[in-house]
């Protein structure tokens, strides 16, 4: 399915270029109105990330996230700076449909495995962000600021024993660039991990990108900047996804 995305800094929708906080573009949109429009158009879930929290968990925009969830307009998967079970429970209690776990999946793997067992695979999304270097998918954390020694396939394999179901994978070099997605990345992931519902993220700029992503076998496509900048309409994106068999 198509999943519209909003990244928030200081309460405002923004996009970063390749995850760089120094290369930020602000958007003057009314988030509530956007959520209402997407629901009317047939969107099933929206992706929301607190970039302040992703960069530093002490700066999480928790009151804002609670306010957005209180609208109850449309299901939301939400992430950014989630570091403990209290964070997860808080967001779920406030109405989040899914909680996105990023850096913690690398820093605290054993604990995240327990969270998957406690809440079940439908409530947890692992966000695994990669830079591809000599065909090796290197995972980055802390709002993409820190490279780790972990590789994408190894982490997915590790969590698969806990019935991992949802993985949001972003090629950082594509994010916010409108340069087209990394189709081979998703093709390989779908081929190697048939039980995972992958969410492709980064680079979608034209409707044909959606067609090509559907052909890779991914279950979901996250679209941010293209919708914010009206490169195409949400109606066209949905039609494109539904028509491609």
Automatic annotation (TrEMBL):
<dbReference type="InterPro" id="IPR013785">
    <property type="entry name" value="Aldolase_TIM"/>
</dbReference>
<dbReference type="GO" id="GO:0005737">
    <property type="term" value="C:cytoplasm"/>
</dbReference>
<comment type="similarity">
    <text>Belongs to the HisA/HisF family.</text>
</comment>
<dbReference type="InterPro" id="IPR044524">
    <property type="entry name" value="Isoase_HisA-like"/>
</dbReference>
<dbReference type="GO" id="GO:0003949">
    <property type="term" value="F:1-(5-phosphoribosyl)-5-[(5-phosphoribosylamino)methylideneamino]imidazole-4-carboxamide isomerase activity"/>
</dbReference>
<keyword id="KW-0963">Cytoplasm</keyword>
<comment type="pathway">
    <text>Amino-acid biosynthesis; L-histidine biosynthesis; L-histidine from 5-phospho-alpha-D-ribose 1-diphosphate: step 4/9.</text>
</comment>
<dbReference type="InterPro" id="IPR011060">
    <property type="entry name" value="RibuloseP-bd_barrel"/>
</dbReference>
<feature type="active site" description="Proton donor">
    <location>
        <position position="129"/>
    </location>
</feature>
<dbReference type="Pfam" id="PF00977">
    <property type="entry name" value="His_biosynth"/>
</dbReference>
<keyword id="KW-0413">Isomerase</keyword>
<dbReference type="InterPro" id="IPR023016">
    <property type="entry name" value="HisA/PriA"/>
</dbReference>
<feature type="active site" description="Proton acceptor">
    <location>
        <position position="7"/>
    </location>
</feature>
<keyword id="KW-0368">Histidine biosynthesis</keyword>
<protein>
    <recommendedName>
        <fullName>1-(5-phosphoribosyl)-5-[(5-phosphoribosylamino)methylideneamino] imidazole-4-carboxamide isomerase</fullName>
        <ecNumber>5.3.1.16</ecNumber>
    </recommendedName>
</protein>
<keyword id="KW-0028">Amino-acid biosynthesis</keyword>
<dbReference type="InterPro" id="IPR006063">
    <property type="entry name" value="HisA_bact_arch"/>
</dbReference>
<dbReference type="GO" id="GO:0000162">
    <property type="term" value="P:L-tryptophan biosynthetic process"/>
</dbReference>
<dbReference type="InterPro" id="IPR006062">
    <property type="entry name" value="His_biosynth"/>
</dbReference>
<dbReference type="GO" id="GO:0000105">
    <property type="term" value="P:L-histidine biosynthetic process"/>
</dbReference>
């Amino acid at each position: 399915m198509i999943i519209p995305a909003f990244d928030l800094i200081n309460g405002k929708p923004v996009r970063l270029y390749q995850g760089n906080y120094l290369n930020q573009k602000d958007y003057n949109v009314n988030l509530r109105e956007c959520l209402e429009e997407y629901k009317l158009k047939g969107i099933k879930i929206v992706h929301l990330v607190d970039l302040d929290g992703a960069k530093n968990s002490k700066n999480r925009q928790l009151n804002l996230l609670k306010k957005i969830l209180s609208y109850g307009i449309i299901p939301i998967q939400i992430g950014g700076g989630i570091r403990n079970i209290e964070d997860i429970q808080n967001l779920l209690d406030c109405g989040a449909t899914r909680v996105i776990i990023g850096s913690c999946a690398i820093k605290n793997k054993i604990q995240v495995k327990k969270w998957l067992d406690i809440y079940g695979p439908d409530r947890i999304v692992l966000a695994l962000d990669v830079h591809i270097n000599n065909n090796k998918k290197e995972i980055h954390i802390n709002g993409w600021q820190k490279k780790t020694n972990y590789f994408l396939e190894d982490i997915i394999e590790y969590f698969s024993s806990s019935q991992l179901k949802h993985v949001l994978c972003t090629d950082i070099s594509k994010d916010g660039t409108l340069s087209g997605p990394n189709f081979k990345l998703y093709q390989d992931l779908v081929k190697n991990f048939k039980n995972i519902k992958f969410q492709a993220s980064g680079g979608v700029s034209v409707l044909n990108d959606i067609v090509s992503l559907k052909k890779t076998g991914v279950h979901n496509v996250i679209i941010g900047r293209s919708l914010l900048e009206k490169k195409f309409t949400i109606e066209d994106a949905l039609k494109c996804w539904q028509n491609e068999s």
